[in-house]
Amino acid sequence: MFLGFGCQQVQNNEEAAIGGAEDLSETIYTTFVINTHDWVNAEQSIDTLNKIIDLHEEYQLPVDIYLNDPVVQIYKEQTPELLERLKTSPFVAVSYHLRPPSPYYWDFDWLGFDKMNNKEIEATLRDYEEHEIDLATGEPTGEPGGYELLKNLMGYSPIVATAMGKGQVEEILAKIFKEKGVKFSLTHSGTTGWQEMKNGLWMRPEDLEVKVYEPRGRKSGEKILTEALDALPKTRPAFLNLKWHENNFYFAGTPWGGIYWNNKEDRGVTSPPWDFSKAGADGRDLSESEQKEQWQRYKECLEYVKNHPEIFTAINARDLAEMIE
User: Fold this and answer.
1) Which one, out of 13, 115, 125, 209, has a CA that is 20 to 30 A from the CA of 166?
2) Cα angle vertex 46, ends 65, 281, to 5°?
3) Is the whole-model pTM more than 0.85?
């Protein structure tokens, strides 16, 4: 029997394991994924995250919440009670991700890792993952930050952390994360099977990612989920990840995108120092009706998953960690 908060729906299948396709052929392991990264609109980010936790506690369904260093620093300064809530809510599993100006965010290497040897790369990555990042210069400061700070604030190792970067950067970052207690990494390119590994870390399984926040012709949460079922494997347990960013509930676009990217189409490498006056240039505020629609869709997804335990088994990263063990 799987433990954690996904287990509430798994108890009817106590004899089944992840490999028991004939026993769990109708089971869809479903994760609500919130990528939190909006330090530009800190107050709205905080309010939205509290509301999301409220909903998951109301529906008693698990959720994965990903944080990066800039939002952790904001929350630490402005709302330590939210960090405590993230730590103690029985329905929340905290994980970690990266955003610019981190020089190992995908192809955003403004620092020049290609000119470093492996020893220099490792020292640089450790510096970033143990210290706060300066958003204007992109350099690590002398203050605590990165994955290490989040780990200390939560009292446990955030379970998923995305190992990014090209070549040796990704491999060395995965090694550092693993040493710090990370169990899973992830990819945004294609599907990921159960028990796949890369650079010594398990990969977060994903048969289908649904970006629920994208305009969908006013489709209901039920419609989105039933369409997802048609796209998932029918002969084995499948993994469905439902994805949002916290800003999707109040801002269309990427709030910090105008600072670090040339434009929406050309997200090429830019160089420090960056101009904060360009914050918000990569999008717009949602209208009141658009905000209501986003929240309504979110609630409809929660309700449909909650009301159909014979189909959906809601899990978060804690459950994944227990399942892989």
Assistant:
1) 209
2) 95
3) yes
pLDDT at 18 over 60: no
Give the Cα separation of 27 and 5 in Å (integer): 16
* Residue 33 parent element (H or E): strand 28-35
187 pLDDT band, cuts 50/70/90, is confident
DSSP string, 257-298: HHHHSS-SS------SSP-GGGTTTTEEEPPHHHHHHHHHHH
Q: How many CA atoms lie within 13 A of 224 on its CB side?
A: 29
Which helix (DSSP H) or strand (DSSP E) does residue 133 occupy?
strand 131-133
User: Contact at 8 Å (CB) between 146 and 129?
Assistant: yes
Helix (H, G, I), strand (E, B) or coil at 112: coil
Average pLDDT (171-181) is: 98
Cβ burial 110-137 (10 Å sphere, 16+ → b, else e)? bbebeeeeeeebbebbbebbbbbbebee
At the topology level, CATH places domain 7-324 in TIM Barrel (3.20.20)
Q: Which pLDDT does position 243 carry in this prediction?
A: 97
pLDDT of residue 265: 66
Residues 212-231 pLDDT 10s: 999 767 789 999 999 999 99
Q: Per the structure block, which two tokens stand in for 108?
A: 């955003």
Alpha-carbon distance of 97 to 150, in angstroms, equals: 11
Segment (H or E) for 154: helix 146-154
